Amino acid sequence: MTRLSAITPSGHAHVGNYLGAVRRWAREGSAGDLYFVSDLHAMTTPYHPQRLRARARELLAVLIAAGIEPDQVFVQSDLIRQLGALTWLLECACSFGEAARMTQFKDKAGAEGRTAARVGLLTYPVLMAADILLQGADEVPVGDDQEQHVELARALARRFNSTYGEVFVVPSAVTPAAAARVRDLADPARKMDKSRSDAVGVVYILDDPDMVRRKVKRAVTDSLGRLEYRPDEQPGLANLLEILAACTGKAPREVADGFDSYDRLKEAVADALIEELRPIRDRVRGLLDDPLELDNIRAAGAVRATERGSHRLESALRLAGVG
Ligand code: AQP
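# adenosine-5'-tetraphosphate complex -> structure
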C-alpha cells in the first residue's frame, strides 16, 4: 500500500505544516509511504527561481529532520521528464471543462483575471494526477481543498485504462484524521500560510527562539479575559491552546485549565514551540550546511522514484501509440 503526500515550496515551512502534516507523516506514516517536495507546483503563479530552488532544498531537509526516512522522499522536479511526458498523455485524456471547473483554478485565476492566469494554473491538477499515477499511489491523504484534484486523477486513470489498456492504479482520496489546523497568530480568521507576505503571525520552523517568542507574545487574542477553549468566540485564544495541546499531547480544554492569564499561556506556548522546533531546526541547519548529505539523499530519492515510475510510463506510452 502506497500513500503519497507532498509539500509545496511556496515559502518557508511553518509550524502549521509541521504540526498539521510533516510531524504526523514522520510519526504515523508507514514504510510504503512516499513524500515529495512539489516544486513544480510552486510555478503556477509568479515566483523567483533562486528562491524556489533554495526552498525546495529547505523543505527536503525539513522532511528528513522531522524523522521521515530518507528512502521515502524525493523532489518532484527531479522527475520532470517523466512527469512532463505523463502529464501530456493525461492532458490529452482530460477535457478543458474538467480542468476549468477545478475550484482552486476558479479561486486563484479569479483573483488575477482568467485570461491573465498561467495555463499551468489550469493544468496543474493534471500534473498532480501524473504525480499520483506515476508512483502508483493507492491513497492520497488530502484536505477538502484538494479532494477534487484526486477525483480528477481517478477519472483520468479510469479513462486511460478503459480507452488504451490497464496501466494505472486508481487512487483513493483519504481524509487524514483531524489534525491541528494552525491559524495565523496575527489574524486567527486565516490559516497559517507559507506564501503570506506579512510574516508577523507565521512561526517558521527556522525562526530562532527570540523570534518565536516575539511572534507568540504578539498573538491576537481578545478582551474577554476568559481562559476557555471556545474556537468560535475566541479563535485567537483557541489557536494558542491548540498549538500547546499539539506540543504537549493534551486536549485544548485540558490545557486551558492550567492557566489564569493570557500572558502566562503565551509564555508556555512560546516555551513549548521553541522546544518542539529546536531539534528540527538544528537538524535542518545541519543538513543545509552539509550539502553533500542532502545531495546524496536527493539523488538517491530521484533514482528510486524514477525507477518506480518508469515501467508504468513506458506501458502508458506504448498503449497510447507513442514513444
Ligand atoms: N496552517 C496549517 N495548519 C495545519 N496544516 C497545514 N498545512 C498547511 N498549512 C497548514 C498542511 O501542510 C501540508 C503541506 O502543505 P502544502 O505545501 O500543500 O501547502 P498548503 O496546504 O497550500 O498551505 P501553505 O503551507 O500555507 O502554503 P500556501 O501559502 O502556498 O497555501 C498539507 O498537508 C497541508 O494540509
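# post-check
The two ends are 30 Å apart (CA to CA).
The chain has two domains: 4-179+290-319, 209-286.
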